[in-house]
Amino acid sequence: MQQHSELGLSFAKSQMFDLEKTLEETSGLAQHNGLMWTHNDSGDQPRIYAIDEAGKILKTINIKDGHHFDWEEMAHDDKHLYVADIGDNFAQRDELYLYRISWEDLTKADDNSSVSAHKMTIIVAGKPKTVVDKNVHNFDFEGLSSVDDELWLFSKNRQDGQTSLYRLNKNKSKQLVSPAASYPVDMLVTAADFDAKRNEFALLGYQLGWSGMSSFLWRANRSADGKSLDWTSAQRYDIEPDGQWEALVWDENKSGLLWLSREGNQQGGVALTKTQF
């Protein structure tokens, strides 16, 4: 296990594209038929944005009957986009929600139109009704990825610095889930994605320090039995420049190409970038 590697990722200004201010809290990334998709973390309406590779918004789509509480992530497969209302900073939620939207509907939708979504409800087993310290707990969630016929949910553990894996059924409208495994990421996970062709996961996250956020990326293979991550293969990368790197997605066409987006804060503006492994 390589918990603190000497590997690094450094993005020059020429590699980073400024996202429009509308996307100041970009918090999820997906890709389909050459279009990137994203949404804001909080303070927005229940809507998603199609963007090009330079960060320009091409169209805005509203989610019918959607509710924007704390949207933290996107996942996708060939047929659907999943928008994850899963954030729980203060461990106050009884249920988490996923919005499953047809790619066909999104492709046909015009700018500023609305599409329907199937709402899925997730209940986390073992979560107490109240936590001792609402700022230090293991029941926040920001990572979600499609893996075959499942969705893999990764926790953001402020208490122990690890992440727990919860495996969800894509076809269940309501489900109770328990952790299947935990990993010593030593960071707060903000995003996850799986590249089926390379059998490889990417986990994005950060640590908080006196100077702000230090961001990191983990790469790890899927285990031989297909049920978890092979943490013996894991490699960790320090990301420069620092900032609130919140979302990532493996490119659908170019093998080993990874896209990342950053929220805007005092350490840097909202941005989209990419790196090749």
Written description of the protein model:
The chain has 277 residues and is an all-beta fold. 2% of the residues lie in helices and 55% in strands. The chain has 1 helix and 23 strands. The protein has a 5-stranded mixed β-sheet, with no helix packed on it. Strands 3-4-5-6-10 form a 5-stranded mixed β-sheet. Strands 7-8-9-11-15 form a 5-stranded mixed β-sheet. A hairpin with a 3-residue loop joins β7 (71-76) and β8. The relative contact order is 0.18. The model has no long low-confidence stretch (mean pLDDT 94).
Structure at a glance:
By secondary structure, the protein is an all-beta fold. It has one helix and 23 strands.
Keyword list:
single chain, 2% helix, 5-stranded mixed beta sheet, 277 residues
H/E series = EEEEEEEEEHEEEEEEEEEEEEEE
> What order do the strands of the largest sheet run in, or round the barrel if closed?
1-20-19-18-17
> What is the average of the pLDDT values?
94
Which percent band covers the strand fraction? Answer: over 45%
Q: What is the straight-line distance between the termini?
A: 20 Å
Radius of gyration: 17 Å
Count of helical segments?
Answer: 1
Structural class: mainly beta
Q: Helix coverage percent of residues?
A: under 10%
Biggest β-sheet strands, sense, barrel: 5 strands, mixed
Number of strands: 23
Anisotropy-based shape: globular
Uncertain spans = none
